[in-house]
Design a protein that fits this description.
Distance between the termini of chain A: 67 Å
Strand order of the largest sheet of chain A: 2-1-3-4-5-11
Shape of chain A: elongated
Oligomer: homodimer
Number of strands of chain A: 14
Largest sheet of chain A: 6 strands, parallel
CATH class of the largest domain in chain A: Alpha Beta
Structural class of chain A: alpha/beta
Order of helices and strands of chain A: HHHHHEHEHEHEEHEHEHEHEEHEEEE
C-alpha cells in the first residue's frame, strides 16, 4: 500500500503519526505496550515463537502493533534467540566473473530460509584479524569464506567462538572444516588428457596464487596426468589472480624460448587475459596455441570469446554451501564447527580456443560439446 | 594470534574456557558484569561512546572483558544507540558487469566509515512489499536502492519510517529523493552527435525496460540531438535488460526492412549481445554497423570486444552514493528523508565498434581516444 508522504494514514492521533518528525522514530515495544496496556515482556512474548501468552493479551498487542506499524526488531529479537538471521560472506574477487552468479544464488537460497547476506570484501591478505571481531560484534549466525586468503588462526578462532564456517572454492589449510570446492584434481587431469589427445607437446599452466587450493589442485591434477602419460611437466607461470598479471605472465610465456602450444589456466578470468596475449602475438587459437580455462563463466560462451573450459557449476556450488552452512547453524553451534568436504563434479565444455582430438568428442543434450578419453586409449 | 582448537588459551578456569561446548556460547555483558563485580549497566556504559563511568569501574570491566574475550554485541548496542551500522543494498542486476565493481567500492567506502552492506537481491518487480518489512526488522541505518524497479509506495514508506534512502542509477519516480545517476541526457546527446559526425543515417536504440530512468533518459538525449540535427528519430527495440532479450531484439532489428547503420545501446551489457548479433549477421563493425554502449565496464576494453562506449565511472558513482547516504544517516533520520539529485559526468571512449568521424577525435593522457564536436560544427 502506498503511504502518503507525511506519515502513515489512519493513525493521525497516535504516537507515531504526528507528522514526519515523529514518524521518523520507529515505534518500539514500549510504545506498543503502552497503547495495549500490557507489560513490555508481554509484547516481547507475543513476537517470540513458542512463547506463552494469554489470547486476550495477544489480541490487544497485535492490534496496537498494527495501529503503530510496529515491527519486532531483529536486533532485540536476537538478544533473546541469539540468532540474527544474518550470514556473512567474506569474498575477495567480485571482479572474477565466476562470483556474481554465485553471490546471487547464495542470496536467493539463504533468503528462502530467512537469512540475509552481510558482505565483507576482503583483500585476500593473510591478516584478516579485524574480520572475526566484526563478525562477532554483528552477531552473525554463520560465515561463508570465499576469501582468497585469511589469517591462519581465523578458523580456530571461529571454532572457539562457536561460529559455523563453510569454506568455498578454497579449502585452504582448514582440512577439518566444511568446504565446497570444484572437482579440481579430476578437472585438471581431464584437461591434460584432452590436450594430449589433441596432439599438443609443450604444456604450460597459468597459475593463481600459490597456496590457494583451487589453483594448486588444478595444477596437481594436470601435472600428474601429463607425467603419467610420459609428457614433460608443464611450465608454470604465476599470477596474482587478476587480469593484468595474467596478461603479463602470458606475454612472457609466449615470448620465451620454449613457447607452449597448450595453456591451461587456473580459471576463466585468467584465460581471458591469455586470449588477449595470444591475439597480440598473432597466434591462431586452436592451431598455434590452445587455451583452456576453468569455471565456464557466463561470458565464456560469447562467440567473441568462445572459451574451451572445465565447467564448475555456480548454482550447484552455491546450493551445496547453503546446505552445509544451514546444517551447521541448525546444530546450534553445539559440537565442533566442522562438516563435510564436498566436491562438486564438473564437465569439460569444448568451444573454439583449443584444438579438438580426432576421437572422443560427443554432443550433449543441450547442444554443448564434451570430450571423454576413448575407451581404447 | 592463532588459538588452539579447544578454546581460548589463558583462561582455562574462566566461564568461557571450559572446552568447546562452553566456548561455543559467546560471553555476554552479564558474564562480564559478574566477573568484574559491577552492574550490567556499568558494562554497557563502558562500551558506549561518550557515556560516563568511573575510571576504576572501567578498568575492572575492561580486564574482565579481555579475560572473557567479550565483544560488545552490535545487536545489543543498536538497542541503545538505535544504530546497527548496517546499510542495505537492494540490487537486481549483479549479472550486469557494471555492478560488481560498484558493489566492491560501496563496500570499501562504507567499511571505512564503519558500515557493512547487507545484500538484497531483488527481481526488479514493482511489488517489493516484503523489502521494507525486512529492512525494518533488521534495523538497517540506510538503504541504497539500485533495484531495477520497486513498489511505488516504497519511498514514501521509507520516509514514514525515517529510513534514509539513496537511489542509484534509477531516479525512478522519486524525484524528491536523493539519487546518483550517470549523465544520461548529456551522454545520449553526445553519442548522437558522434554518430551523425561519423556519417551514419539510420539510427536505432536498444532500450532497457521502459520506466527505468537510466534507459529512458539516454534515449531522450539521443533522440533529441538526432531530431535537432534534422535526422530521423531512432527506431527503438525493447529488451528486458538481459543478454538474451538483447540478442533477440538486435537480430530482429538487423533482419528488418530498415536495417540501422548505427545502434546505441542503453548499456554495455546489452551492447555485447548486439555485437554477437552483428557478428552472426556477418556485418563488419564500424563499416556496416556501428555499435555504442554506455557504462565502460571493465571488459569493454578487452581487444576481443573493444566496445566504443560512454563511460559512467563506477568509483565516482559509488563514492557519491556513500557521501549522500552518510549525510542523510548522520542527520539522524530527522527531517525529510530527502537529498540531492547528483549526476556524475561521463566521457565518450572510442574503440573499434563504431566508425570514427574525420574530425573531433582527441587522445587523453591515459591513451584513450575521445571525441568532441568540432568547434565549427
Amino acid at each position: 500500500m502506498a503511504l502518503a508522504k507525511n506519515g502513515p494514514p489512519g493513525n493521525a492521533g497516535s504516537m507515531a503519526g504526528q507528522g514526519k518528525k515523529q514518524a521518523a522514530r520507529a515505534p518500539t515495544s514500549h510504545d506498543v505496550a503502552r497503547l495495549a496496556g500490557v507489560s513490555r515482556s508481554a509484547v516481547s512474548r507475543c513476537f517470540t515463537e513458542g512463547a506463552s501468552v494469554a489470547p486476550e493479551t495477544r489480541e490487544r498487542v497485535l492490534a496496537a502493533a498494527q495501529t503503530l506499524r510496529y515491527r519486532p526488531n531483529l536486533a532485540a529479537r536476537s538478544l533473546i534467540t541469539r540468532r540474527s538471521m544474518v550470514v556473512a560472506l567474506a569474498i575477495t574477487h567480485l571482479d572474477n566473473q565466476y562470483y556474481p552468479p554465485v553471490v546471487q544464488r547464495l542470496s536467493e537460497q539463504l533468503g528462502e530460509a530467512g537469512y540475509r547476506l552481510l558482505l565483507y570484501m576482503t583483500h585476500g591478505e593473510a591478516s584478516e584479524e579485524p574480520l572475526l571481531d566484526e563478525l562477532l560484534r554483528h552477531g552473525v549466525d554463520g560465515l561463508i569464506l570465499a576469501s582468497r586468503g585469511f589469517a591462519p588462526g581465523l578458523l580456530a578462532q571461529c571454532d572457539a567462538a562457536g561460529l559455523p564456517v563453510v569454506l568455498m572454492n578454497n579449502a585452504g589449510p582448514g582440512a577439518a572444516h566444511a568446504s565446497v570446492t570444484g572437482d579440481n584434481l579430476q578437472g585438471g587431469a581431464l584437461v591434460a588428457q584432452f590436450l594430449l589427445a589433441g596432439g599438443h607437446r609443450r604444456f604450460a599452466y597459468l597459475a593463481g596464487i600459490a597456496g590457494v587450493s583451487s589453483s594448486d589442485e588444478r595444477l596437481e591434477g594436470y601435472r600428474a596426468a601429463l607425467v603419467a602419460a610420459g609428457a614433460a611437466a608443464p611450465q608454470v607461470a604465476d599470477t596474482r589472480f587478476d587480469y593484468d598479471s595474467a596478461l603479463a605472465a602470458t606475454r612472457a610465456l609466449l615470448a620465451g624460448a620454449e613457447r607452449p602450444d597448450a595453456l591451461f589456466c587456473a580459471n576463466d578470468h585468467l584465460a581471458f587475459a591469455a586470449l588477449q596475449a595470444a591475439r597480440e602475438a598473432g597466434l591462431v587459437l586452436g592451431q598455434d596455441l590452445s587455451v583452456v580455462g576453468f569455471d565456464n563463466v557466463t561470458i565464456s560462451n560469447w562467440p567473441h570469446l568462445a572459451l574451451t573450459t572445465y565447467a564448475q557449476p555456480p548454482r550447484a556450488m552455491a546450493d551445496a554451501v547453503v546446505e552445509s552452512l544451514r546444517a551447521l547453524m541448525e546444530a546450534g553451534g553445539e559440537g565442533p564447527a566442522q562438516g563435510e568436504q564436498r566436491r562438486i563434479p564438473g564437465a569439460l565444455i569444448l568451444r573454439d580456443t583449443a584444438r579438438r582430438p580426432a576421437r572422443g568428442v560427443f554432443v550433449r543434450a543441450d547442444g554443448s560439446h564434451g570430450w571423454a578419453p576413448p575407451a581404447s586409449a
